[in-house]
Write a structure and sequence with these properties.
Two copies of one chain form a homodimer. Chain A is of the alpha/beta class. The first copy, chain A, folds into two domains: 147 residues, Alpha-Beta Complex (Aspartate Aminotransferase, domain 1); 218 residues, 3-Layer(aba) Sandwich (Aspartate Aminotransferase, domain 2), CATH 3.40.640. In chain A, the strands form three sheets. In chain A, strands 2-9-8-7-6-3-4-5 form an eight-stranded mixed β-sheet, sandwiched between helices. A four-stranded antiparallel β-sheet of chain A has the order 10-11-14-13, with helices on one face. Chain A is globular, with a radius of gyration of 21 Å. Chain A starts with 15 loop residues before the first helix and ends with a helix. The interface between A and B is large, with 73 and 73 residues.
Chain lengths: 398, 398
């Protein structure tokens, strides 16, 4: 019967991450691979209290079907936080609650993309977005990232001839690279978006996890009428709820709502009410401050260990927040080859390959510092340095 | 910017149900319109206990990311219940937990359907399926329902020339008609599915709600290698959890899993564990028995009121379970016109139109008996009878 499988399912990249996770299950292995937030900071007791209140206040009604848009209280709390934290005026009416921000990518794909359309994407890019958007049978047009954001010269060149409908971007503490777009970079991108009439999909799950530097402007502020903003509670509260949101300009909202309804009617009314109750009763800033402190310490510990144990010619990005560092091996060296050597040293990371839309060798790789304590980071970096040794002569690493 | 909206979003039927729900908010209105399960039977206390146990047993780990397939314990419990209740051998490995069975429709659509493909669908059919599948830009081939199931002669004729990839069916207490397919009807459909190589999408959220008659065989039993079975906790426990599942033959499972991962990574690990705990600690049969008793009483009360207050020429199906009755007005009379008259009498129902894939007048309509008590049923049917009066002469209703 396989002959009746849809065309869109052909050539979907297998999830290499899932393969790595299997290796990571061995407790002898140190993992810099996972992209998970640190469960030590999930506010379990506070969520338990919020859950009890939800049963008390709402009883059976919270277990009934509800609106496709999502819970009104939760949408208002999200809008209020955007105003307070970022000065963004987002109406609760333009927010739809989704099953994590991942679902927002799927919904926007449904609303905008025909087969054969062109989609701009930062390279390296979030592999969940690559996988999700691949199902629409679109052509990816990768635009390289540098330390300030997108390579705007390349973007200007490709969007002149591509008539792309959309740019996928994670402008803060990007996954996988950890870099953030500067304001001037964002402004130049927004000008191109306006000129060439493409939507900016601003996927922003990490921006509240800033442990250094100053926040910039959101695309949603610079170009509100063409920006779709995705947010998530996964990194700042807990991912197991699968609660995210999509905030869109009015011309897209009704279409996204139809797509949401068709996809699964609505997101769990029960988990939405728990989150609303949790947010009402607790100081989210104080909670996030604890996460930031730990992630900042772990990032600095990893940078320090790398500076002491790694050859200088292997360079890393310098994130001001988030969960990831991005490394670069000498040109021509395959990070997949290093991965195999690292497994033998009982340490794993994610090779760059799955973050690129094309094929071919990649010399880049991602380290995550969110779930490893400082001693483990030190030991893991030492193991990585040992895994590198056999390659040093061959690739002139020093 | 509207010019960049994808083709699939054009011509999606607006949800008339949502419009009706707005009218129903007026407490003076009696509603036979809703398709909701009765919240009076949600096992709130038991779910609250299960939730407390989940916090105790799992703590932070239940709030972390988890597998796209879903919780292993929950998948095992679902498989064990199929074996116990229906003698169906379904491996937990072939089950994926979804956000309600609605998401299962979307996932199977992604895996099977190219634009322009033909999809067989019972007529009248579940409007959520019509909406969801419409987004794949397929051609619906409606096959009429009668009291035994599909009109097999028509099915044989259309599937000979259509090369359809899939048949969408709700074989037990169908939404909207309330009818169930007989075993011999299912066997003849399965033989055609085998001959013409199409997948049977067996959407089965209601089969445990049987208040009369004897259960038949599942398509999944008759033709396991070509049947995809959708199940849900929405009608037997509570819909607010958004927990359903898709059980598929192995040749489809891996593809569905990729589609699920791309759609939203996974369904809430928190709600899955609560449901698993609830199922382990409670007798689901005893719980369902209470629902069945009420729905059976309400169905019989509605049938009795209709026989006393309605003209005999208006006929109704005779469901053995589920939540719906399906009525038929004289040929040529538009149930939408009756709806307007009914609103004036302060009673609402769902006109047949949204359950058909084509346009044109429909003389059919759906009454739901799940959420109305016996006195309200009596009063609502009287109001409906009054709403009918002005039409009786014109359409020869007697």
């Amino acid at each position: 019967m396989e002959e009746i499988i849809a065309e869109r399912m052909q050539g979907i990249p297998r999830s290499f991450i899932r393969e790595i996770l299997k290796v990571s299950l061995d407790p002898a292995i140190i993992s810099f691979a996972g992209g998970l937030p640190n469960a030590a900071f999930f506010p379990v007791r506070e969520i338990q209290n919020a859950t009890e209140k939800v049963f008390e206040k709402y009883g059976a009604s919270v277990l009934q079907y509800s609106k496709s848009e999502g819970d009104e209280q939760l949408r208002s709390l999200i809008a209020a936080r955007y105003l307070e934290k970022k000065g963004l005026h987002i109406s609760p009416e333009n927010i739809i609650i989704t099953n994590g921000s991942q679902q927002g990518i799927d919904l926007l794909g449904k609303v905008l993309l025909n087969g054969g359309d062109n989609v701009l994407i930062e390279e390296p890019g979030y592999l969940g977005a690559i996988q999700s958007l691949s199902l629409f049978k679109i052509n990816f047009i990768p635009v390289p990232l540098d330390n300030d954001g997108l390579d705007v010269a390349t973007l200007a060149e490709v969007c002149g001839r591509s008539r792309a409908k959309m740019l996928y971007t994670v402008p803060n503490f990007q996954n996988p690279s950890g870099i953030s777009y500067t304001d001037s970079n964002k402004e130049r991108i927004a000008a191109l978006a306006k000129e060439h009439r493409f939507v900016v999909l601003e996927d922003d799950p990490y921006s509240e996890l800033r442990f250094a530097g100053e926040p910039g402007k959101a695309f949603c502020h610079i170009l509100p009428e063409q920006t779709v903003l995705l947010g998530s509670f996964s990194k700042i509260v807990a991912p197991g709820f699968r609660l995210g949101w999509i905030a869109s300009p009015p011309w897209l909202h009704e279409k996204l709502l139809i797509a949401k309804q068709a996809a699964d009617l609505h997101t769990s009314s029960f988990t939405q009410k728990i989150m609303a109750e949790f947010l009402s009763d607790n100081n989210l800033d104080e909670h996030i401050a604890k996460i930031i402190e730990a992630y900042g310490n772990q990032c600095r510990a990893m940078q320090s260990a790398l500076s002491r144990h790694f050859p200088k010619s292997i360079t890393f990005t310098k994130p001001e927040g988030g969960m990831f560092l991005w490394g670069r091996l000498p040109e021509g060296m395959d990070s997949m080859e290093l991965f195999q050597a690292a497994v033998r040293e009982r340490v794993v990371f994610v090779p760059g390959k799955p973050f690129y839309t094309g094929n071919g060798l990649t010399s880049t790789f991602r380290f995550s510092f969110s779930c490893v304590d400082i001693e483990t980071i030190e030991e893991g970096v030492k193991r990585m340095a040992r895994a590198l040794e056999p390659f040093e002569k061959r690739y002139g690493i020093n």
